[in-house]
Amino acid sequence: MLKYDYIIVGGGPGGCVLANRLTEDEGCQVLLLEAGGRDLHPLFHMPAGFAKMTKGVASWGWHTVPQAHMKGRVLRYTQAKVIGGGSSINAQLYTRGNAEDYNAWGREQNCGGWDYLSVLPYFKRAEDNQHLADDYHSYGGPLGVSRPAATLPICDAYLRAGQEAGIPYNPDFNGRVQAGVGYYQLTQKNRRRSSASTGYLWPIRQRKNLTILYGARATTLVLQGSRVTGIKAVVKGREELFTADREVIVSSGAIGSPKLLLQSGIGPEAQLKAVGVPLRHRLSGVGQNLQDHLDLFVICECTGDHSYDNVAKLHRTLWAGLQYVLFKTGPVASSLFETGGFWFADKTARSPDIQFHFGLGSGIEAGVARLKNAGVTLNSAFLRPRSRGQVTLQSADPAAAPLIDPNYLADPYDKAMSLQGLRLAREIMRQKALAPYILAERLPGADKASDEQLFDYACANAKTDHHPVGTCKMGTEEAAVVSPDLKVHGLEGLRVADSSIMPLIPSCNTNGPTIMIGEKAADLIRGLPALPAARLALADQRMPA
Prior knowledge:
CATH superfamily of the largest domain: FAD/NAD(P)-binding domain
Number of strands: 26
Number of helices: 12
CATH architecture of the largest domain: 3-Layer(bba) Sandwich
CATH topology of the largest domain: FAD/NAD(P)-binding domain
Largest sheet: 7 strands, mixed
Number of domains: 2
Helix content: 10-25%
CATH class of the largest domain: Alpha Beta
Distance between the termini: 57 Å
């Protein structure tokens, strides 16, 4: 069957949610096209499997263009190529951002219905929290959320060190107040990864009105006048045409979604002309407004075996695997980033603008240095960059990789705040509480103290936090690509529903917000009334309560 009511292009967090919710209507046929494969390998479901993911497993293998404001540095840019998208390969941190992030969407970006009190019910609808049920949390939803299951004593020492550095303890980053240090909630259930695939697709994959095609690389949207009627995709080496009676929903992520629109002739005329793609619909904002979190980090050598670094030794790897299989405990049950926090680089900021991730090892992610002895990593990311980048095509060939330019540190404010965040991370690692565990800072190194030295270090070592958003911006102005109901401006039968629609990057990891977008999009597409807005007294987020 090549004719459907809805076609969802991309099986990432947004696409999995939509496949579940749209097929609740037994009277409609839904096709989900996923360019990647199934998530059958055990690594996708073991929490510590994340350590392999940024090193090439189930990713497109893309890189940025040379970064003009980072001395020409080219950064690895991991984007998922597997069902579940980023939720199948990330570090499983469940964060939602700050209430003021979404209020800015509604107020500053003129996106009615996307303020915090309006989106909180969709966060809660998605959630199956194993521990919390209050004004901010719920249970019974598809997405498992739980506390870390495999922490180490150095995690508690990190929390004490944060408090010694003046950052209060916070038991719930997704609750009333975001600021503080604490344990992250994780997208895990029964000590296994809870991805959008396992939560939303696995339980309903036998529905007769759902068709899932893996290894299906979308090439172009099909337009008849101003209406999108279907999509062409390469499946098993052959291009197929799939038609949609109602809508095509693009959910291929902040890189893949604008890439597909541009391939289809939807975008800025000059860019399309430059690569030989015929213009079908002029829309200047497609691929623009790219925002991402740039990560700077401190790596310290431990005084002993206080992290999971030495699990890499063969005998310990075998024991860790056996421990997990038999008891669901030990290193494999760890996401490797289970504590962290949110704080202020700019003390006048309206809410926390720095996020910390405390990693139980060194060299956990691709391109990050690994120590010979056991070590730990403290990541620091500036959360609200002012710099804007873009995604463009390098050729008219749909199989060609896109040109990804996050334009990191183009705004001097981003540079200043990023370096201040790095200093805060170093300060935490030097506190008394961590002294029994930390032998010495190895990166940047004690000899690196000036702005120039730290900037050189950042240019050589910084990495993406894997949070690209904004390239199919939601809004009503000329630069916007979709309206607040996620319809592509000027076209019928086409919506976008993923992280690319975020007008401003949220102050957090982006998996949770993307799943929320999928939940809200499902109601918009089905024409259902919005969930009733939450009734809460919002906290002042400028400093913790």
